[in-house]
Amino acid sequence: MAFAVKIKERAAPIRVELGETVLQAALAQGVAYPCGCQAGNCGACKSRLIAGEIEMLPCSDYALSPEERAAGLILACRTLVWSDAEIASLDADPAREAVA
Description:
By secondary structure, the protein is of the alpha+beta class. Helix content is about 15%, strand content about 30%. It has a single domain (about 1-100), classed as Ubiquitin-like (UB roll).
């Protein structure tokens, strides 16, 4: 089973399989998504969840603080999707200043 994840900055959604993170799917499909460690420690793939049901795998509080989680931010490298979803990379998110 797979879900469609719309990345706000991209016209076509990506296909994310069960058990695959959003970042893994994006990179496998040739999407240039900001990333660094790919293990939930650096925060380079920090994104805003716009819609959808997700599960966040464990990550460092340095990469994603409890306050950021409460504000709807996620790490693409630690996000599993459980429904079709929409996200926005913080690199292009005008609301970033309100959280950073």
